Amino acid sequence: EQRGLPGVEQVREPAGHLVRQNLDDLDLDEIVAAVTRDTLRSENVSREFREHAYRLLEAWWADNKGKRRALEALDAILALVPTAIAALNHTQLACLTTTQVKALRATWLSALSDTQAASLSATQLAAMTAAQIKGLSATDMAGLTATSLAAMTTTQMAAMTAAQIQGLSESQLASLSTTQLAALSAAGAAGLSADQAAALSTEQFAALSRTAVASLTATVVASLAVTQLAVLDATRISALTVTQVKNLSADQLGSLSVNQTKALTAAQLSALTTTAVAGLTAEELAALSTTQVTGL
């Protein structure tokens, strides 16, 4: 019995019609048998298989004009998809089901404009895979509504890049839940600017993971309000890099609690500027261990 090309039934229309119409008569069993006969007679199976496959493909391409045109047409259709998506209006985008949204390639989604991204519903956005979310540009992210952003899953949040985070406005960031911010990766958190970080509430800032806090730029750390620093637990304080600690001001250092000060490592303390050290309170200095003191 002749078998059809595997997976053809999964190809969507109109490409599916083009492929099935021209490939139904392809005898896969005969092709497999021919390849098997030639390769098994050779000691160097890998080389012989490769050479035979090339010859077979070249012969098929030359002898099957109809099938070749079908593949060329399919390739042309796929090449036009990004342009077609970019031309969709808000009403047409709204008609896409979650199943259809999931079928869109990340590279196709990158063709969306900020106004098109703004028309995506919360349900449509929540249906996207992590790979698809990465396909959205910073401009697309800037166009998302607060309602759509609120629908993003933790998996999607973890997939966001630094550039995408930079594309969000301060009001958009303020609309994110603590659960969503807790899922932000180190790579994503590295994209936060000083103004964006300042827009986060103390609850939101406290939700950032240890690795996310450690990935904040030195400029962001230097701009943190004392109320934001106050919500960092000992684990997050000890995760601060030497570069980050070096940029702490005297006021910031003096605002740390005794427990936070105890969490500082000798390496972190040694990175402090003399101006910053002058900000340590008597209570903080008294809480330092001998190992920490050696770092000053």
What separation lies between the terminal Cα atoms? 82 Å
Low-confidence stretches: 1-6, 76-81
Fraction in beta strands: under 5%
Sheet with most strands: none
Helix/strand structural class: mainly alpha
DSSP helical segment count: 30
Task: Name some characteristics of this structure.
mainly alpha; 30 helices
Helix/strand layout:
Layout: H1 15-23, H2 28-40, H3 45-63, H4 65-86, H5 90-94, H6 98-102, H7 106-109, H8 114-118, H9 122-126, H10 130-135, H11 138-143, H12 146-150, H13 154-159, H14 162-167, H15 170-174, H16 178-182, H17 186-189, H18 194-199, H19 202-207, H20 210-214, H21 218-223, H22 226-229, H23 234-239, H24 242-246, H25 250-255, H26 258-263, H27 266-270, H28 274-277, H29 282-287, H30 290-293
Helix pairs in contact: 1-4, 2-3
Kindly describe this structure.
With 296 residues, this protein is mainly α. 67% of the residues lie in helices and 0% in strands. The protein is built from 30 helices and no strands. The chain is elongated and about 85 Å long.
Produce a short descriptive summary:
The protein has 296 residues and is mostly helical. The chain has helices at 15-23, 28-40, 45-63, 65-86, 90-94, 98-102, 106-109, 114-118, 122-126, 130-135, 138-143, 146-150, 154-159, 162-167, 170-174, 178-182, 186-189, 194-199, 202-207, 210-214, 218-223, 226-229, 234-239, 242-246, 250-255, 258-263, 266-270, 274-277, 282-287, 290-293.
